[in-house]
Amino acid sequence: MHPPTYILAIESSCDDTAAAVLKDRKVRSNCIANQEVHRIYGGVVPELASRAHQSKIVPVVDKALNDANIDKNQLSAIAYTRGPGLLGSLLVGSSFAKSLAWSLGIPLLEINHMQAHLLVHFIEDERLKTPDFPFLGITLSGGHTQIVKVDRHFEMEVIGTTLDDAIGEAFDKCGKRIGLDYPAGPALDRWAQKGNPNTFDFPIPKVDGFDVSYSGVKTAFINFIQKMERTQPHFIEENKADICASLQRVLVSIILEKISAAVASTQINRIAIGGGVAANSEIRKRLEEKHTSQAWQIHLPPLEYTTDNAAMIGIAGYYKMQQESFGQLSDVAQARLPF
Questions:
Q1: According to DSSP H, which parts of the chain are helical?
Q2: Which DSSP string corresponds to 13-76?
Q3: What is the largest CA-CA distance in the chain?
Q4: Which fold has domain 130-300?
Q5: Homologous superfamily of 6-120+307-322
Q6: Secondary structure class of 109 (helix, strand, coil)
Q7: What does DSSP assign to residue 2?
C-alpha cells in the first residue's frame, strides 16, 4: 500500500476563488468564494476579479485545509490553474500556489482549466461513473464550447469549437437583454421550464464540420426582441417563459446537432459533459433522450462539479502526480493556454 497523496488545488481562472483538498481521487473539501461585485455590472470586470481573488484566496485555502482536517505540512503537492482564463485572476492563484509549494518544499502541478472540466469525471464519487477511453468530452461554459476527443487523461484533441461566442455567453447576453440578472443562464433555464419551446423560432447557423457558432442566433434574438417591443411594449413580461424556452431549445439544438455528427463520424458514443452550462436542464434532458433512443453512454457531473471549482483541478493534479509531470516556478500563467 502506497501512502496517500494529498493535493491542495487552487482555481482562480475567472471570478470564483476556489480551493480543494483531494486524498488520492477522493474529494476531502471543495470550497468556493463567489464574487458578488460583478452582478451590478452585468458581467465579470477583470480588474475587480483579480482584486477580489487577492482578498479571498487565503481564507478559502484555510477553509479547504480545515474542512479536510489536514495540516498544510501533510500536503504532497499543490495543483493550480495555469490557464486559460483572465490573466490577472490566474496570476493571483498561480503566485499563491508557487509561493506555498516553494515554502513547503513540495511539487507544483500546473493544470489546464479546460482539461480539468473533463477530468472531473474521474473523481472517486458514488454519483460519478468514470467514462472508458476513448470518449467525447463536451466543454460548455461562458468562455468555451468545445467537442474534444479524449484518448487518455492528457491526450485530448479538440475536433470542434465555437467560431465566435460560447454557448454560456449566448445564454447570458440574451438573458441580460430581457432583464434577467447576471449570470442570466440559470435564471433563463428556470423561466424556460415554465414555457413552450416551440412558440418562437430562431435560426440555427450552418457551420462546417463539428464547429459551432452562437453570435448569429444571439444577434437574431436581440433584433427579434427589439422588433416585438416596438409594437408590444410589454412583450417580454407577457411572454418571458415562452421566450426563454424557445431560445434555450435553439441554443441547445446547435451543440446537440454537432455532438450527433461527431458520434456518427468517430463511432464513439461515450459522452462526458463539463463546464458551467452542463448544469442546464435542457441539455441534460436532451442527452438522456439520446441515451434512451440511441444508446449513448452519458456522463453528467454533479452540479457542484459543473461550474468552476477546485476539485476538478485537484483530480487533474492527481493524474499529473502519477505521471510525475511536475510544474516549475518559472511556468507563466497564460490567458490562452493551448489545449
A1: 46-68, 87-104, 113-119, 167-177, 184-192, 215-231, 235-266, 281-294, 310-322
A2: SSSEEEEEEEETTEEEEEEEEE-GGGGGGTS--HHHHHHHHHHHHHHHHHHHHHHHT--GGG--
A3: 73
A4: Nucleotidyltransferase; domain 5 (3.30.420)
A5: ATPase, nucleotide binding domain (3.30.420.40)
A6: strand
A7: P
Q: List, for residues 191-246, the tens digit of each pLDDT value.
A: 999 999 999 999 999 999 999 999 999 999 999 999 999 999 999 999 999 999 99
Cβ–Cβ under 8 Å, residues 158 and 209: no
Nearest to 13 by CA among 30, 35, 28: 35
Tens digits of per-residue pLDDT, 83-128?
Answer: 999 999 999 999 999 999 999 999 999 999 999 999 999 999 999 9
- Which amino acid is it at 256? L
**What are residue 72's DSSP bridge partners?**
none
Could you state, in order of their start, the residue ranges of all structural domains in the chain? 6-120+307-322, 130-300
Question: How large is the average pLDDT for residues 254-275?
Answer: 98
